[in-house]
Amino acid sequence: MREEKIRVLLTIARFDGHDRGVRYLARKLMELGMEVIFTRFVHPGDVVSTAIQEDVDVVGVSFSVGGHKYITSEIIKGLRENKRADILVILGGIIPDDEVGELINMGVGKTFGPGSPATDIAQYIKDNMTKKQ
Amino acid sequence: MFEKEFLEEEERLKREWKELYDRFYKDKEFKAVTDSDIPVKSVYTAKDLEEIGFRPEMPGIYPYTRGIYPVQYQFTPWFNNLVLGYGLPEQTRERMDLLKEMGARGYFGKDAYNLVFDLVAKAGYDPDDPEVTGRVGVAGCHFATQDDFDRLFHDIDLTKVSVVQNICRATLVEIAMYIAYLEKRGIPITKVYGNSMNWLWSFAFLGNVAFPPKSAFKLMAEFIKYCCRNMPQWNHTNITSYYVEESGGNAVQEAGYAISAGIALTEECIRAGLDPDEFLPRFGFQIAQAGDFFEEVAKVRAMRRVWAKVNKERFGCKNPRSLHLRMHSQTSGVTLTAQQPLNNVIRTTLQTLGAVLSGTNSIQTNSYLEALSTPTEESHILALRTQQIILHETNIPNVSDPLAGSYYVEWLTGKVEEEVFGIIKLIDEKGGFRKCWESGWFKDEITKSAYQWREKVASGQKTIVGLNKYVTEKEQKVPVFKYPEIEEEAIRRLKEYKEKRDNKKLEGALKRLKEVAVMVDETWPEHSGELMPAVIDAARAEATLGELQGVLKEVFGWA
What we know:
The complex is a heterodimer.
Chain A: E1 7-13, H1 20-31, E2 35-41, H2 44-53, E3 58-63, H3 68-81, E4 88-93, H4 97-106, E5 110-112, H5 118-132
Parallel strand pairs in A: 1-2, 1-3, 3-4, 4-5
Helix pairs in contact in A: 2-3, 3-4
Chain B: H1 4-25, E1 32-33, E2 39-40, H2 46-51, E3 79-80, E4 83-84, H3 89-101, E5 112-116, H4 119-122, H5 146-153, E6 162-166, H6 171-184, E7 193-196, H7 213-230, E8 234-235, E9 237-240, H8 242-246, H9 251-271, H10 276-279, E10 283-289, H11 293-314, H12 320-323, E11 326-331, H13 343-358, E12 362-364, H14 377-393, H15 407-429, H16 433-438, H17 441-459, H18 487-500, H19 503-523, H20 531-540, H21 545-556
Parallel strand pairs in B: 3-12, 4-5, 5-6, 6-7, 7-8, 9-10, 10-11, 11-12
Antiparallel strand pairs in B: 1-2
């Protein structure tokens, strides 16, 4: 384990008003000892540039109103192009079950549906961060 | 209120009850609160009503706690106001026809549709804007040009149906386009009716990009002024506080914030030169019917009373219709779970029942798939059937305000009223609704409340069946809705539309719109009333939704 705190970028599109879950998660992850940057993005490229500038370990994107396939693929592509494929990408919100496989194949670590306990998400991040050390 | 003898008898019985209670439960302490943290006892009596100053009331008579009309559902049931919209307009039209065929009706049995436009249109973007990629036709019906109205309504007599148009921040421009479309079809705008969801103010609670507070109120006042003077049957204003509970606020916050928003909007309209009795009769509300059954009923009853008192005492309204709080209740999406989704049928049924018992005017029952997707045909019909079963099979609608006189419900109605007036006072002291919006106070309060609720769920203090109790390993599989892929087609149509119109004429109209918008903004309220006609002129010149909203964003700000 490294000494520094895990840095997480949590983000949701400006279009999406359903930010209750992601805002709660932001606070919980902070309480659980992580550093959290919370943003609203316009274009997927914004997520990539923020993740790189802030040198985060994890990007968590919240979706409730679709667009997840396109936006996620753009984010992962952007991270790869910038040689930051090491950044763990997780998704939350309303994502149909039968689309999860496709998103995992794209490079997403895991998707968390509505009502997922914050502690499970934190644990998943810790476990998967450790593997990368 | 009650006879002395009655209360003395009650006191005697209460002593007897206390002995019984203590015999069995002496060492146990009962502690409970509503979802808004109002402490409740295990039983209520006439004495509690005495203490809150309970007064006799009748439906249709001030202060309207028991309903705004002398009859409730006896002659006209509530409006089956199920929101619908997805994909291309013609695809949304299929769902309109389906729900109509299944018996969904508006007031007095008339045809009525509650249309929701996609998030792209709701924010006033055209489908080719790079910001919206992946979201066209999602969570609502795609809409960009007047041709889209034709795809929805070409064979419908728009003077005979009620159309709810839920397009949020793009209300001014969308209604301007609707007016231009009606003119093309030769339909007088004085004859159409429906509602616009001019929710420009609701971004006090939400994080989305929107018009800033100062502009939002101006724009709404401009819209209201135009509708008052030109579209007498149009319900121009809907004050939604649904988002407050959905974002994590509680029932009393929701009610208090909504009434305060109504106050702020009324004040802005007065500044714009309108008389409250001219515009308040066309105000409506939309609220959540959430989990705490009796508190949610009490909330609606209390809101009717508070709104009537505020408009009478604060604004001196004389028209009884200005005092009427017309309510659309929506069952609560956020109470529905992705886990064991069939349980949501029970939740939406209970919430619909609560809405009916509150005497609301219009109800949206959410589909049980709410936590998973937009409604499928099957889940949409089931939501409608929920309302129809309550309407036809339970005999509940025979009696107006059937919970009136219940010690608990009346006490709680009084308690919620007290709390709501407290919130209104607090907001007044903080400088009013707009100041609280500008300072981020609403969002802070709601976030705090959302956090507390979620912590209660995480700790098991609050039980959610299937989520933190009675959890099952085996997943319940239900068919979810898949959006059709329409983005390419939407962009193609937009391009074609732009090619065939007179672009020179349009350029002039947009230029003039900008000049008027700047003037209205800078001299507010001196030139109030001039904005909407300019938007309509540009709509007549076949501007798209994104082009019109683009001008307003540029002038009034957008962040």
